[in-house]
Amino acid sequence: MKLGLYLLSLLLFTACAVERPAAMRHDISQVLATQTAAWNRGDAAGFMQGYWNSDSLVFIGKRGLTYGWQPTLDNYRRSYPNAAAMGKLTFSNLHITPLGARAAHVAGRWHLARPAAGDLDGHFLLVFRRIDGRWVIVADHSS
Predict the structure, then answer these.
(1) If 0-12 CB within 10 Å is exposed, 13-18 middle and 19+ buried, where does residue 139 land?
(2) Cα separation of 10 and 26, whole Å?
(3) How far apart are CA 129 and CA 76, in angstroms?
(4) Do residues 108 and 95 lie in contact, with contact meaning Cβ atoms separated by under 8 Å?
(5) What residues does each domain of the chain span?
(6) 141 falls in which pLDDT band (50, 70, 90)?
(7) Which of 76, 74, 71 is nearest to 87 (CA)?
(8) Is 89's pLDDT higher than 50?
(9) What is the C-alpha to C-alpha distance for residues 77 and 74, in angstroms, rounded to an integer?
(10) Phi/psi class of residue 117: alpha, beta or left (left: φ > 0; alpha: ψ in -120 to 50)?
C-alpha cells in the first residue's frame, strides 16, 4: 500500500513538474513575439530581455563568438544604432523542438525590412532553457 501511494505521489509530482510540449511551444513563441515587438519599436535592450542575462550567454554570428549578455547588447547597438537601422523584424518557419522539460531549440528564419538601408535576412538556431521560471535564450547562432 505504501509503495503504491509513493509511486502515485511520484507520478503526480513528475506530471506537475514537466511542462507539456504545447505549453512550452506557446511560452517560447511568446518570448519571440515580445522580442519582435521590442525590436520593431527600436528597443534593443527590450529585445535582449528574451536572452539569459548571464556572462555564459553565447551568440554566434558572422563576426564570430560573443559571450555574455552585455557584450551581445553592445554588438546589437553597434550594428543597429537607431530604429531606422533596426528596421522591422519578422520571424518565420519556426520549428520549436522540446529537448526535455527545461530545454528546447528553435530553428527559423529572420528578416529585417529596412527601406532606407536595405533588407537583411538569414537563419537561426536558438537554444532555450527554463531558468527561474522563465524561458530564455542561452545560445543563439544567427547567420
Answers:
(1) middle
(2) 26
(3) 22
(4) yes
(5) 20-142
(6) very high
(7) 76
(8) yes
(9) 5
(10) alpha
pLDDT in tens, 94-109: 999 999 999 999 999 9
Q: How many Cβ atoms sit within 10 Å of the Cβ of residue 59?
A: 22
Amino acid at 101: A
Cα 104 from Cα 31, distance rounded (Å): 13
pLDDT classification of 13: cutoffs 50, 70, 90: very low
- Which grid coordinates are listed for 29? 513563441
Pick the CATH number of 20-142 from 3.40.50.720, 2.40.30.10, 3.40.640.10, 3.10.450.50: 3.10.450.50
The secondary element (H helix, E strand) that includes residue 26 is helix 21-40
- Would residue 93 be called left, alpha or beta, if left means φ above 0 and alpha means ψ between -120 and 50 degrees? left
Place of cell 550567454: 57
Confidence of residue 17 (pLDDT cuts 50, 70, 90): very low
Looking at the predicted structure, is the pLDDT value of residue 8 above 80? Answer: no
Q: CA 138 to CA 131: how far, in whole Å?
A: 10
